[in-house]
Every structure is written in structure tokens, then in C-alpha cells.
Amino acid sequence: MAVPIILSVALIAGIISIVLAIIFRSLVLKEDPGNERMQEVAGYIEEGAKTYLKVQYKVLGIFVGVLFLVMLFLLPNMTNPGTLNWEQALAYLIGCVGSMLAGWLGMYVGVKANTRAAQGCTKGTKAGFDVAFFGGAVMGLAVVGVALIGVSIIYWIFESPLVVLGFSFGASSIALFMKCGGGIFTKTADVGADLVGKAEYNLPEDDPRNPATIADNVGDNVGDIAGMGSDLFDSYVASIVAAMMLAAAFGVIGTIKAPFANVTLTAAGTSVFIVTPVVYCGVGLIASLIGIYVIKKKGSEEPGKALNTGTYLATLIYFAFSALITIALSIGLGSEEVGLLWRIWGTSAIGLGSGIVLGFTSDYFTREDKKPTKNIAHAAKEGHAVVILSGFSYGLLSVAPPAIGVILAMTISFWLAGVFGVAMAAVGMLAIVGTIVTNDAYGPIVDNARAIAEQGELGDEVIRTADKLDSAGNTAKAITKGFAIGAANLTVMALMFSFAEEAGITVIDLLSVNVLIGAFIGVVIPAFFSALLILAVQRNAAKMVDEIRRQFEENPKILTGEEPADFHKTIDIATKGSLRELIIPSILSITVPIGVGIIFGVASLGAFLAGAILSGFVFAVFMSNAGGAWDNAKKWIEDGNLGGKGTEVHKASITGDTVGDPFKDTAGPSINTLLVVMSLTASIFMGLLLMFNDGAGLLGNLLTIF
Amino acid sequence: MAVPIILSVALIAGIISIVLAIIFRSLVLKEDPGNERMQEVAGYIEEGAKTYLKVQYKVLGIFVGVLFLVMLFLLPNMTNPGTLNWEQALAYLIGCVGSMLAGWLGMYVGVKANTRAAQGCTKGTKAGFDVAFFGGAVMGLAVVGVALIGVSIIYWIFESPLVVLGFSFGASSIALFMKCGGGIFTKTADVGADLVGKAEYNLPEDDPRNPATIADNVGDNVGDIAGMGSDLFDSYVASIVAAMMLAAAFGVIGTIKAPFANVTLTAAGTSVFIVTPVVYCGVGLIASLIGIYVIKKKGSEEPGKALNTGTYLATLIYFAFSALITIALSIGLGSEEVGLLWRIWGTSAIGLGSGIVLGFTSDYFTREDKKPTKNIAHAAKEGHAVVILSGFSYGLLSVAPPAIGVILAMTISFWLAGVFGVAMAAVGMLAIVGTIVTNDAYGPIVDNARAIAEQGELGDEVIRTADKLDSAGNTAKAITKGFAIGAANLTVMALMFSFAEEAGITVIDLLSVNVLIGAFIGVVIPAFFSALLILAVQRNAAKMVDEIRRQFEENPKILTGEEPADFHKTIDIATKGSLRELIIPSILSITVPIGVGIIFGVASLGAFLAGAILSGFVFAVFMSNAGGAWDNAKKWIEDGNLGGKGTEVHKASITGDTVGDPFKDTAGPSINTLLVVMSLTASIFMGLLLMFNDGAGLLGNLLTIF
After folding, report:
1. Of A215, A640, B127, B690, which sits most exposed with the smallest number of CB within 10 A?
2. Above 60 in pLDDT, residue B706?
3. What is the pTM of this model?
4. What are the pLDDT digits (tens) for B533-560?
5. Could you tell me if B457 lies within 8 Å of chain A, comparing CB atoms?
6. Cβ–Cβ below 8 Å for A389 and B545
7. Can you say how many angstroms the Cα of residue B111 is from the centroid of all Cα atoms in its chain?
8. Up-side HSE of residue B140: CA atoms within 13 Å toward CB?
9. How far is A238 from chain B (nearest CA, A)?
10. pLDDT interval class at A706 (50, 70, 90)
11. d(CA B151, CA B563)
């Protein structure tokens, strides 16, 4: 079938998705925002979130501007050699704006939906669920819609995956800021609020007297909604572009090299394979919409079950619809290419299937009714140190099962369709990301709703309803994390392969010392990066602690509730701190890959990426799961087990939870984005790197056996 | 110069070293063992240590026997094809026995020296220092002496580095048991003693009423003396054999491939290069002996300074003597080969120099007067969780400087003499291991002496003297750790290269999916292994805690000091637990590399080793330094800073220290041994691996682009 027609599937799905997001937004806005106090609190949260985003976007403006100029004037144009690199630079700008837009839209609705969901809870589970879910769906649909529209239009106009790469780089550089900055913000507030409010003054969670309460709620929005949305936007686009680049490269070479069968591509076949990832994502979006519809239908009764049912259903529908579209795609192709197309369909199905499996293993290692989390809770009986050792160990052990999952997915998809198959497995894993993001964004909205219900004094029953909705989001959240890490891993693997194709290197030989050094630096980077982020949270939280103590000491009326705490000051600390602290990590993520490429050469840079991907996987899974398990071990104890709240066991479990906070919400999830940014940087700056000894780098020739 | 003559340098140095060890031993034994109570305590420690070693050696007997039979009957003879593999299997047995012997000798003196050093302290610093230092020197000299005698005699007889490889594999398999088992034992006792004795019953350190006190002291001997000795024995032999194997391989190929200059080897040149690592180590041993002599001379005044001066002096003497021996080695060689020999001398000097630098960076990150440790101590003001986050982050950050150091050493030495240069850098780094082990083994002896002085009621002044001696050992210990990790890293790199030469693979291509999978599994393994060891300590310590509580509850007279605690029971728990818990890790370390090789092929196994080496480096440095920094942050607070002992800040710092215990003394240092064992396993089982599709493995061909 002609490429423009089939590509329109993605474009139309994207447009439908944006239209639905706008409709859902208005459905949310027309709900009752609750009593005056609730509106006041929600107003503070909204104001804080917007202030943060405004400051963040200002800093981003400089960063984006500089990179735009670098791309435009310093990088050679690889699509139309000899001309200014304007297409890629422009696509980069569009990617940045698209990512910011999706983040803004999602968060704008999030901060409106929270108070309305709280008010909904006064009417019952259904009303509360609907508002929160619609709020989450706006984020989910906006992310996927903007991404698909952007990718398909840019490819339609320029017909070059390298230009789409610019779009992806834009999305990633924004995601890095949003994810790291949001992660630091949210944990600065959370840890600060807990350390003084809960531990020193025995204030309950979400108490309005705690000056950091509003900042904590703002953090949920900027970290968990905007940050997570831009993270998945980033992986989604990157997985598509990696597959497109590989398909294009094979088109140039003429052969898809796969062990199962070598297939020589025709020009028509190549253009079909290039758009296949986009089209599959379009189909996945339609499957996601049906999933969302079903969750909305069923969600009012059993919210937790509904979220999962929606995910499974979207998966099955994706399998069926993508098979149908494969039939359409195969029209006019030769039998060898049709066979390859079906194998590619298989890889995308395997990718999605293993995404689900990865979600479940991460769920197992963090669920309070499973052995690891229970053992961690029991370890709390021996004190603070033992609960840390236990969570640390289980976190490290939890790396093995998803690693095996990714290795299996990689093995089978490579066997079916070569490195293009690996890229398509990543695309498949992210195909139903609309549903995934929706389910995930639902979480912080109900979390916020609970806080507003508390502060709006809506009573215990309403809070219990909000709690019920909240706990439904937890499994969904665990599954999302498994998905996000697995998908990012396969995506960056695919990016590494496409980088190698682009660089024209056919071998990355670990026996060459320059390559080994690249791998070495790559393996160290995620550890270094994680340390910077955790130290940032710790430093910032210490400032937050000082500020909260200062407010309580200087104005005792805050504690009696006679005068309001100064929320602005705490939000200001979290905002400024998070932006200051992400300067070094973000500069490193761009400069280190370029530096490795210039000094040790492109083959070394390929190994750098491989090392970072593998070590990043270990750290991302370890930190996410250890953090989740500590969190749930604490909750399990708070449910009355092992003596319950207020005991020494409980205190030890809080230590675990606090250590886990920046693990699971700052460092762990930021690693994905880091990996994507570094991989894209390598590809984007290829033209520059090839200027140094034709890509061998300044020292590369000295370190290779010749 | 003729090879046998020059090789005799190493043999004679080894024999001198053993003779000196025996003399030092008798010097220690003729000292006054102190009062009756001291002798009683020392007797318990000696008995416990011997019991542990006996049980350990029994289990080892089975393990060694099985592996011996496997090597003899299942593995093809690569030296004399077609015959039974008896030479390598025999060398393996000798390596096992040698390692056990060195460990036994060192520990036997250690448990005699402790009470004599305590008694010496009653006469003053000098007397105490002398005994402890002689005790440590016995271990240091025994390790190096046995290793050098073993390697040179085996090579003299069989003239095949592959047979020496068997000796190395024996040393490693024992080291794995000694290091992991000892590490679990010592921390089981330490953590158990602290959690109940110190935290619950407020007993001071080394209080005789605490049933785990003796087990804790036994742990210092089995973990820090015997374990550490066998660990460095292992790295030392492995670095020599890796260099020998590479020299022999290049002899077969005819060319040393180095960027600086390609050199074609003559038969005479090859035989000189093969023995060069052994000869350099012989020279290094002589340098070590002079270093030891100087420390002995100066040590009585300023112990800390003396230990370091000895190390520097040994380094300088090594530079000079190895240059002299290089002149001797070059007799009869052509000018090209002489040039290469001098470059190789350069790589060994660079290796040793960077070992010193690595030691210093690890010292910086763990010293209480430096910023990282101070910041960690200040973090303790914010509570248990923040001190953990801080130490965790600084531990991760501390990976970067030594990584840069190793990368620089690797770059320059490769540039000078190819992969053989990298191997020789490792040899150089370990050349003065005699001094290093001596300084390091001194530590646990004075640590034990302090405990015996406490229990023998020798009074505060004697304890202060013992404390002074103890703190002198700390810097030495930090430097040793840096050395040990850096040397192990370069050694396993060299082993990987020699593995590749042996397997006949010229490329390990990360763009092949089977290779990428190998690297993936390799990167995950050190994390998994660390988790198993930490969980082992945690599980075992919980049993220890239960036992101590039981004794205090069932017999209240223990706490009043009227009746002695039951030491045997606690030693029994630590012994049995540590042996049970190391079964899985030790089986994994042998079976995983074989499994990867059989399934994915030898190239994949090469990448597995590379992945494990790099990720292992990250985890080893991180855990050692985080643990050391937490320990010293606690000590700094105990010195009266930030409120001193008994405050909440102090309690938080104890949490850090307890978390750090298994990090720095169990998991961190065991990773080195794991890496060496896995690398040697890959080489030893080469004949088996090549049986599966000629080394491509069962699946390898399916996952390679062809």
C-alpha cells in the first residue's frame, strides 16, 4: 500500500488522541472543584507547579537555544550534505516544543483534576475514579498524540529518519530536565516534609501546618505527571526513530541481516519498513483508546482490576490490529519481504508480551504480600541497618529476572529479524504506552486528591475512598516501571545499533583497548550520575529541613494552626535547588559521549553506549525495586503488622522508605532518560565525531592493534 | 641470559622469603604471651580460628577433589594433546595446597601474635609494634614465597604457562572460599555482637560478657588475615600467569602487537619474555624485604608513617632493581627485543606507580579528615536515612577517580607493549605485594591485641598504646584495598586477553547479539553475587542475634560476669553459616562462565568477562569505599565531634557503619576473587567449550550476523 496512505493511520490516530484529550480535559474542568479550602489548597498546588514549570522552561529555553545553534551551524547536514543543517535543527526545536506542550497539558489538567477527584470521592468511588482517570488520560493521550503527529508529519515532509532523529533529540533533552528536575523537586519536598514534620513534630501526612506539604503535592505533579510523561514521550519517540533509522540503513545496504533469513530489500519494501514502526504505534494508540474506554466502563467498581484489565485488553487488541495492518502493509511487496514483515510483526508482539512480563516481575519484588518485601519488613525488627541491607540485597537480586526477560526478547527478536527486530521489539513494548501513561498519571492525581480531602476536612470516609483509589494505582505504577525500564533498555540497544550503522562501523571489538576503555567509562557513568542526583536530593532536603525548622521556631502560631505556614518559600527552595542541581548531570550527559567519541573514536563510543546501557539497566532496576520494596514494607507495617505504627520496627522501616525515595523517584527513573539522551547525542553529533581521524578519534589509532 | 639462571632469582627470593617467615614466626613465639586471662582469651580465639579452618578445609577437600577429577578426566590436555590432563590437574592441586598452606601459616602466627603484641604494649609502643609487625610479615612473606616457589618450579619442570594456569586456578578456588567464607564469618560475628551487645545491652566493644566477642576476634583472623592473604595470593599468581600466557601466545604468533612498534619475537626472546613476570616478581620480593626491614627499623617511633615509608621505599627499590634485572634479561637479545623489554619494564613501573595512586584515592574517600567522610558524618545529623544516602552517593562517586587511574595505566601500558603491557602493569602493581600484605595483616593483629588487652584487664594506658598501633594500620589498610582492586582489575583484563588468545578469537564484537548478551550477563553477575553475600551476612547475623539474646535471657549471670558466656556456640553459628552460605556463590562462579561459553560461545564468554570486570570494578570500589567512609564517619563522631558518643547523631552513624560492614568486608573484597575465578575458569575449561560448535556455542551461530 502506498506509504502516505498507510502513514495517515498514525497521523489520524494522533489527531483523534489529541481531540479526545481536549474533550477529557473539559469533562474534568466542568466537575465541582469542592469547598473553598480545597480550592485554596488546589490553587497553591497549581500555582507552585506552574511557577516551577515556568522557571524550568526559562532555563530550558537557554539550553535548547544553545543546542539549536550548535546543531544548525556546527553540525554538518547529513541528509543534504553541504547545506545548513536546518531540517534537523528545526525538528529538534519542534521536538522540544512538543515535549513541553505534552508535559504542560498533562500537568495543567492534573492540578485541576485533583481537587475535583477529591470532591468526587464525597459522592462515591465511581465519581472520584472517573475524574482522576480522565485527568490521567489527558496526559496519556497528549503524550502519544503529540509524538505521533510530530513523527509522521516530519517524516512526511522530509522523508528522512535523520530529521526525525532531531525531533527525538528534542524530546529527550526536555525529558532529561523534566525527569531529573522533577525527581529532585519531588523528593526534596517529600524527604524534607517527612524528616521534620513527621519525625520531629509528629504531624500526620499532608498536614496543612507543615510548610512543605504543598511543595510535596506540587512535587507529585511535576515529578510523577510531567516528568514521567516526558520520559515516556522520549522513549516512545526514540524507539520509533531507532527502528526507522535501521530500516533506512538496511535500505541503503540492500539487505536485512538476520540469522533466520537474509532478505534483500526493494525500494518499495524499504519505504514500507521505514514507516512500519510509526504505523504500528498508530495501531497501538487505537488499541490504547479501546483499553482506556474499557477501564472507564469498569473502573468504578474495582479500580485496581480495571486498570490491569485495560492493559491486557489493549495488548490483545494490539496483537490483532497490528496483524490486520500488516496485511495492508504487505500489499505490493514480494514474498520474501512479506515473510520478513510478518516476522517483524512477531518481534513487536514479543516486545509487548515481554513488557507485561517485566511489569510483573517488578510487581513481585515490590508487593507487600510477596516474600522479598515481607522479608525486608521482618529485617526491620533488627533495626535501621538491617532493613537497609535487606532492601539493598533484594533490590540487587531483582535485577536478574528482568535481565533474563530482556535477553530472551532480544534473542528471539534478533533471530527473527536481526537488529531491526530488536528495535521493533522496543516499538512493540511501547505501542500501548497511551494506556500505560494514563494508568500511571492517575496515581499522583488521586494521591493529591487524598491530600486535598485531608486539608479540606472532608472527613474520614472520603479519605478512605481516596485511599482505595490510591492503592489501585500502585500495581499499575509498578507495572509501568517494569515497562519503562525494559522499553528504554531495548530502545537504547536499538539506538546503539543504528548509531553503529550510521557511523559505518561493522565491529565494536572489546579486544581493542580504546573500545574497552569506552565500555569502562560507560559502565561507570550511570553510577556516577545516580550519585549526583541522590546527593542533590540530600543537599536540597537539608535546606528544606532548615527552612521548616526556621518557620516553626520563628512563628509558633504555625504549629497551633492559627497562622498559615509559608508555602512559597519551601516551593522556592525546591524549585531553585532542583534546577541548580541538574546543571552538572545534564551537561555531562551531552559532553561525555561527545568527549569519548572525539578522544577514543566512534567504535569506543559504541562500546560506551553498550556499557552504559547494561550498567544503567542494573542501577535502574535495582534502585526502582529496592525503593518500591522499602516503601511497601513500611506500608505493610503501618497496616498493623509486626506491631504497627509508632514502634521501633516502624521507625526502622521509615528509614528504609526514606532511603528508597530518591532511589525510586529520582535516580532510578532518570537513568532511562540519561541513556536515551546519550545515545541520541552520539547519533546527532556523528558528523562532528567523524571529523577526528575519520571517526577513529584523537587516540583511537594508538590503542588499536594494527 | 639463560632462562633457568634468571628464573632462579625468583626461586631464591621465594626461598629466602619462606626462611624469613619461619624466623619471624619463632621471634613472635618466643615473646611473652601475657597473663593467664590473656592466654585464655587468645586460646579461645586460636581454637575458634582453627576449628573454622578445619571445617572449611574439609568442605574444600570435597570441592577440590571434584574439580581435580573433572580437570583430570573431562578436560582435554592442551599442552600435550591426546594424553590425560595430569600436569594441569596436578598443578591445580599444588595451587590449592599452597594457598591453604600460606593461609594456615599466616593465621597460625596471627593468633599467636595477638596476645604477645598486647603484652608487648605493656612495655611500650615499640615492643607491641614489633610483635604485631613480625606477625603480619609472616603472612606477607608466606604468601609471596609460596607463590613464587610454586610458579617457578612448575614452569621449570613443565615449561608451559598452561600448567601454571592450573596452579593459579587452584589458588583462586581456595581464595574464593577463604574470602567469601571469611567475610561472611567475620561480619556475622561483628554485626551480631554489635546489634545485641552494644545496641541492646550497652556493652562496650570487646566486652568478654558478650558471647560473640570471641567470634568477632576469630573473624578478624579468618576474614582479614587468612582471607585477605589468600585473595592477594590469588591475584599475584593470576597476574603472573596471565602475562606468561600472553608472552607464550605471542611467541607462537611471532609478533608482539603494540601500537608503539611491532616486534617480531625470536625463540630466545619468547622464552625470556615468558619468565619476565616471574623474575620481576622475584625482584619485587627483594624490594619488599628491604621495605619490611626499614619499617621494622622505623616503626617503633611513628608506626603509621613507617608503614607508608616502607611501601614507598619498596616501590623505589623495585624501580631500580627491576631496571638492573632488565639489563640482565636483555643479554643475548636483538635490539628490537631489547627495546620491547625496556618498554615492558616501563609498563610494570607504571602499574606499580598507579597502584600507589589508587591507594591514595581510596584513602581520600575514606579518611575522616577529608570532605566526603566529614560530609557523611554531618549527614548523620539528619538521621539514619540521610547518612545512608550520603555514604551511598560518595561511595558511587569514588568509583570515578580510580577508574580514570586504571584507564590511564591501561592506555599507556597498551601503547607501550600491547596487551602484554597491560598484563605487565598488573604484575608491576603486585610486585611489592610482600610489603602490602605485611602492612595489612598487621592491622587485625593489633585489633585483636587491643581486644585481648581489654579482656586481660591490662589497663587504660596499654589500651591507648594498642589503639595508637591500631590507627596506624588504617591508612595502610585503605591503601591495600586500592591496590588490591586496581591490581585485580588489570589482572582480569589481562586474563581476558589471554583467554581470547587461547580461544583463537581475534574479535569480540559487541554488535553481535550473542556477545552483547554475554556482556549483559557479565554486568549483572557482580551485583547478584554481592546481594547473595550481603543476604548471607544478614541471615546469619539474625541467627547470631537470636543466640546472644537466648544466652542473656536463659542465664542472667552472664551479664553480671559471674558465669562465662558460651563462645563455642556463637563460633559454631558463624562457622556453619558461612560455609553453608558460600555454596551457591561458589558454584555460580564456576558454572555461569561455563554455561555462557557453552550456550553463547567463547566470544560471548569473553564479553561476559569484560562486562563482569567493569561492573565488578564499580561494585568493588563503591562498596569498599562507602563502607570505609561510614566506618570512619562513625569514628570521627566517637572522637567527640557533633556531640560524640551516645547522641542521636552517633546512633545514626552506627547505622551507616553497620550497613558498611558487609559492604567493605564481605561483598566488596569478594568481587575481586570472583572475577579472577571466573576468568580462570573460562581459560581452564577452554577445551570443553571448544567442543560446542568449535567454540561458537549452542546458540552463538543463530545470534551472529553472517
Report:
1. A640
2. no
3. 0.95
4. 999 999 999 899 889 989 998 988 888 8
5. no
6. no
7. 20
8. 32
9. 19
10. very low
11. 52
Report the candidate in A383, A361, A367, A392 with the shortest Cα–Cα distance to residue B531.
Answer: A392
Instruction: Round to whole Å and give the CA distance between B447 and A80.
Output: 71
Q: Which residues of A257-275 are buried (b: 16+ CB within 10 A; e: fewer)?
A: bbbbeebebbeebbbbbbb
- The rounded distance, in Å, linking the Cα atoms of B183 and A540 is 37
Per residue in A226-269, pLDDT tens?
888 888 899 999 999 999 999 998 887 777 777 666 788 888 88
Q: Would you say the C-alpha torsion B320, B325, B329, B330 has a positive or negative sign?
A: positive
Q: Which whole number is the average pLDDT over B299-307?
A: 77
Q: Which residues 82-141 of chain B have a CB within 8 Å of chain A? A: none
Mean predicted confidence (pLDDT) in A186-209:
83
Gap between the Cα atoms of B678 and B684, Å rounded: 10
Is the distance from CB of A84 to CB of A159 less than 8 angstroms? Answer: no
* pLDDT on residue B705: 60
Total structural domains in chain B?
A: 1
The pLDDT-based confidence of B565 (bands split at 50, 70, 90) is: confident
The Cα angle at residue B39 between residues B33 and B44, in degrees rounded to 5: 135
Count Cβ–Cβ pairs < 8 Å, chain A vs chain B: 264
With cut-offs at 50, 70 and 90, classify the pLDDT of residue A392. very high
Distance CA(B34)–CA(B450), nearest Å, equals 13
pLDDT, one tens digit per residue, over A368-386 is 889 999 999 999 998 899 9
The answer for residues whose C-beta is within 8 angstroms of residue A677's C-beta and 6 or more apart is A172, A173, A175, A176, A589, A590
Place of cell 526536555: A174
Looking from the CA of B365 toward its CB, the CA atoms found within 13 Å total 29
Contact B346, B319 (CB under 8 A): no
How far is it, in rounded angstroms, from Cα B170 to Cα B172?
5
A569-606 pLDDT, tens digit each: 999 999 999 988 888 998 999 999 999 999 999 999 99
Show Cβ contacts of residue B506 under 8 Å, excluding neighbours closer than 6 positions. Answer: A511, B500
Q: Do B199 and A383 touch (CB under 8 A)?
A: yes
Alpha carbon of B119: minimum distance to chain A alpha carbons (Å)? 36
Whole-angstrom CA distances from A305 to A195, A473, A487, B673, B691 are: 35, 10, 24, 48, 51
Helix (H) / strand (E) containing B264:
strand B263-264
φ/ψ (deg, to 5) at A302: -120, 90
Contacts of A560-569 with C-beta under 8 Å, sequence gap 24+, read A561/A208, A561/A209, A564/A208, A565/A208, A565/A209, A565/A210, A565/A211, A565/A213, A566/A211, A567/A44, A567/A48, A567/A211, A567/A213, A567/A214, A567/A215, A569/A211
Q: Which H/E stretch holds residue A103?
A: helix A86-123
Exposed e or buried b for every residue in B213-236, given b needs 16+ CB within 10 A?
bbbbbbbbbbbbbbbbbbbbbbbb
Query: How many helices and strands in chain A, by DSSP H and E?
Result: 23, 2
Which 240-299 residues of chain A touch chain B by CB within 8 A? 257-259
The C-alpha atoms of residue B15 and residue A144 are separated, in whole angstroms, by 74
Domain containing A165 equals 3-250+259-703
Rounded to the nearest 10 degrees, what angle do helices B86-123 and B36-69 cross at? Answer: 170
Q: Of A296, A357, A192, nearest to B382 (Cα)? A: A192
Q: Round to whole Å and give the CA distance between B396 and A671.
A: 14
Question: Does the structure's ipTM exceed the value 0.90?
Answer: yes
Contact of A534 with chain B, judged by CB distance below 8 Å, is answered with yes
How far apart CA B260 and CA B276 sit, in angstroms, is 20
Q: Is the dihedral of CA A26, A27, A31, A36 positive or negative?
A: negative
Q: How is residue B266 annotated by DSSP?
A: P
Place of cell 538476520: A258
Q: Do the Cβ atoms of B259 and A659 come within 8 Å?
A: no
pLDDT at A2 over 60: no
